[in-house]
Amino acid sequence: MPDDMGSFRVDFEIENPARPGERRTLKSVLVDTGAELSCVPADVLEGLGIERYDTWHFRQADGTILERWTGPAFIYVAGKRTTDDVVFGEPGDLVLLGSRTLEGLNFRIEPVTKRLVDAGPAPAAVAA
Q1: 100 alpha carbon, distance to own chain's centre
Q2: pTM to 2 decimals?
């Protein structure tokens, strides 16, 4: 995707919550708020020992449905960490940082500067 379309890329690290201390860095990953889950190449996740524990179905823009395995991971971006399910990407799949991961990191997108910025205080319910 061309940068003038509003897309941008970030580096992030990924770690297996069951084996803390060993991380992999993914460079120039597309930030995609239209993707629910982040997608990482399966060989990276398998190399970290991340367990495949569920499958999700995804609808592509052309209407076709894909099935992919997911598993839990710690994701580190710009000094913050979150836990999220990530997709075991197959050959040809894009490597993405999805909206649920961004929400877990409490980042929002600054479209003019094409950066991730702190989203500020999260909404909370008040006890009655």
Answers
A1: 7
A2: 0.89
Residues with Cβ within 8 Å of 36's Cβ and at least 6 positions away in sequence, in order, are 98, 99, 100
Alpha helices in the chain, H assignment, sequence order: 42-47, 99-105
Q: Any bridge partners for residue 54, and if so which? A: 70
What is the separation of C-alpha 93 from the centre of its chain, rounded to a whole number of angstroms?
13
Question: One-letter amino acid identity for 50?
Answer: I
Per-residue pLDDT of the chain (128 residues; tens, 9 = 90+): 344 456 899 999 999 999 999 999 999 999 998 899 999 999 999 999 999 999 999 998 899 999 999 999 999 999 999 999 999 999 999 999 999 999 999 999 988 888 999 999 988 888 77
Instruction: Quote the CA–CA distance of 34 and 40 in Å, as a whole number.
Output: 16
Residue 9: Cβ within 10 Å count: 14
Phi and psi of 15, rounded to 5°? -145, 150
Instruction: Give 41: exposed, middle or buried? Use CB within 10 Å, 0-12, 13-18, 19+.
Output: middle
